[in-house]
Amino acid sequence: MSNVTFAFTLSLLAGLSTGIGSAVAFFAKKNNTAFLSVSLGLSAGVMIYVSMMELMPNAISSLSESLTEKNASIIAMIAFFGGMLLIYLIQRFIPEDGVSRKKPKKSGDVSEKPDSGKSKLLRAGMVTALAIGIHNFPEGLATFMSALKDPSVALPIFVAIAIHNIPEGISVSMPIYYATGNKKRAFLVSFLSGITEPVGALLGYLLLMPIMKDAYYGIIFAVISGVMVFISFDEILPAAEEYGSHRLSLAGTIIGMAVMAISLVLFM
Predict the structure, then answer these.
(1) Packing angle between helix 33-50 and helix 214-231, nearest 10 degrees?
(2) I want to staple 176 with a disulfide (CB 3.0 to 4.6 A). Which of 13, 186, 192, 197 is the partner?
(3) How far apart are CA 78 and CA 75, in angstroms?
(4) Looking at 128-142, 149-163, 183-197, 203-217, which range is the least confident one?
C-alpha cells in the first residue's frame, strides 16, 4: 500500500467512525427526554472541550510559525470572537420560527412538545452538523498529511480522532431524530458531517496544500472554535435543559468533556 493510499484510508476510517455515534439514534427511544438531555449536554461538552483544549492551542501554534507568540495569541483571540460574531450574524438571517426560550412542561414525550420546540431542536442539530463538518475538514487534512510524513505518528492521531468522532456523531443524530422522528435522516446527516474528513484530506491534498500556510490554518481553527462555543451556549445547552433538567444537561456536558479529554491524553 502506497503512503498516499494509507494516508487517505486513515482519514476515511476516522470520518466513518462518526457513523458509530450516528447509529445511536437507531437504538434510542423517542420518548426518553432524559437521554436526549444528556445527549445534548454531551454534544456541548464535546464541542466546548475540543474548541478550547485542541483547536485554540493548535490555532496559536500554527500562527506562531510566522508571528511572535503574543501576536499569535492576539490574532487567535480576534478570530475566535470573529467566529462567534459570524455565527451570530448567520443566525440573524435564519429565523427561529418564533421559538421561545420558555421551558415547556415536562410530559416525558418529545412528541408532545410544541412544534416550535421541535424546530429549535432540529435547527440545533443541523447547525451542529455544519460546525462539526467544517471542523472535520482540517482534521481530515491533518490526519492525511501526518500519515504521509510519518505513519507511526499518524496512527495515534487517527485513533484519537476516531474516538472523539463517535460522540460527535451522537451530538448530531440525537437532536435531529428527536425533532423529526426519522432515524434514517438523523443517521444520514450525522454520517455526512463525518464524511467531510476524507473529503478534507482529498481536496486539501489536491487544491489547498500548494497555497495553504500555517497562519491560514491557525485562523481557520480559531474561527471554528468560536463558532462551536457559541453554538454550544446559544443552541445546545438551552435545548438540553428544555428537554430534561439542569443536572442532566450538566452531567452530559461533563461526560462529553471527559470523553474528549481521555481520547486526547491517551492517543495524542
Answers:
(1) 150
(2) 186
(3) 5
(4) 149-163
CB-CB contact of 115 with 180 (8 Å)? no
pLDDT higher for 138 or 248?
A: 248
Q: Which of 175, 168, 217 is nearest to 192 (CA)?
A: 168
Residue-averaged pLDDT of the chain? 75
Instruction: Give how far Cα 100 sits from Cα of 43, 114, 127, 193, 219, Å.
Output: 21, 10, 18, 28, 34
Neighbours of 110 (CB within 10 A): 20
Q: What is the dihedral of CA 262, 263, 265, 268, to 10 degrees?
A: 180
User: Could you give the CA distance from residue 45 to residue 233 in angstroms, rounded to a whole number?
Assistant: 10
Per DSSP, the three-state class of 255 is helix
CA distance 56 to 37: 27
Sign of torsion over alpha carbons 35, 16, 236, 26? negative
68 Rama class: left (phi>0) / alpha (psi -120 to 50) / beta: beta
Phi, psi of 228 (to 5 degrees): -65, -40
Residue 1: CB partners within 8 Å, gap ≥ 6?
9
Q: How many CB atoms lie within 10 A of CB 228?
A: 28
Instruction: Please report, for the chain, the start and end positions of each structural domain, with discontinuous segments joined by +.
Output: 3-55+95-213+234-267
